Hints:
- By secondary structure, the protein is α/β, with parallel strands linked by helices.
- Helix content is 39%, strand content 16%.
- An eight-stranded parallel β-barrel has the order 1-2-7-8-9-10-11-12, surrounded by six helices. A five-stranded mixed beta sheet has the order 13-14-17-16-15.
- Residues 364-431 form the DRBM domain.
Amino acid sequence: MSAGRLSFSNITALAPMVRVGTLPMRLLALDYGADVVYCEELIDIKMAQCQRVVNEVLQTVDFVAPDERVMFRTCEREKDRVVFQMGTADPDRALIVARLVEKDVAAVDVNMGCPKEYSTKGGMGAALLSDPDKIEAILRKLVAGVSIPVTCKIRILPSLEETVSLVRRIERTGVTAVAVHGRFKDERPRHPVHCDYIQAAAQAVSIPVIANGGSLDLVKTNADVDEFKKATGASSVMLARAAMWNASVFNSGGPLPLERVMEEYLKYAIRYENHAFNTKYCLCQMLRDKVESPLGKQVQAAQTNAEISDAYGLQAFYQLTQEQLQARRDALQSSSQPDRPVLDGDVTTMAVRFERREYPPQITPKMFLLEWSRREKLEQPLYETVQRSQDRAFQSTVTVADKSYRPSLWEKSKKFAEQAAAIVCLRVLGIPEGRIGEEDSGLVCKRKREGKANGATTEEESSKKRHVAEIRQETSESPVVANGDHRKPPEQP
């Protein structure tokens, strides 16, 4: 193997696991001593539609689907040790995906062992075991077409002879290594692993064979890894469920308390904005028989990473991380966006953000825009807000006098997004917006600016109620929506 290429000899690897092998778990496994980490199986058709996006806020590389879902996220920390596993049954499509990711991963792997329907339909996963010609075509195409190592992961066939014949044929394609899960296609984790089959495969080829399937009864701690390796005669070992239950199985110093492992996992999930439902799923797998404990029930009830952080007492870490990410986001956006109006189609945009501290307690830009619209006898401002799936940020567009205005920056809440949109409109039109130190424009009277000392309803709420009453006096026939609050619900990720 040339210098710099990933070696699969004498390694311990995190196995590919659907819904588990996302970035937080991979980084955690590396921290505890894993030599190589595999991502979860990702289907070629979905990956081929993705766009590679450098996420400067998270400092990651994201592969984003047309619906804005992040299908695969990686970072510099794992670049030379992460293996991208794909589900495929088509050589050409496999090559498209491999070339898409090859600059960001250490190797690509083809799943030929998963027996689940989502993988076998379309001829992928374990379905490939009955089509060795296709196996060979896919692997040869990949080996010839990419600059990084190519591997595959199989299950054993009904006989030793068939298994040996397959791994020898796989070796001739030029792959760097082959992982062998020591169970038949119709067997499940409760069935014992067939070490003799893995041993026969390892003795039949010169490339590294990675033994998989020992988590049931052979590998409980890191001390058992060498025993599993000896029992199978394999060069390396790949761990799935044992790592899912407690990733410190890779720790040569012995297992760590599960509470600590879960907290370290959650910190990575927060740091890299892992999807909350994925975070929850992985934590529940770690809890296992304690999933119905008070902690388990709190985790299951959580809907966001913030709520999960509350369950583990990591509120301060969550808040600090959010502030750091927002500061990085602000710095990047302000440096790349001009603070002057820019026409984006038929919408005027500006790089502005709503800073609450710049306005008196009872004053907001929306209030000023509403009062100005009334004075000019215009229809009330119309706000439309969307939510971005990658980071749950909001962006609003306001329409006034048939012209639309939008901030180019995204906000942390729907309310702030609408205020930012109002700011863009006011600044473009040269209208006061109510900031502290601004001369009195007469749009909002002194009493409104000072508010009520007893802390009653906010001025914007009072304005809304008064305006509703005025319109109802004029007509009782048409429905009224006050304060321009004609907003669409945020788009769901």
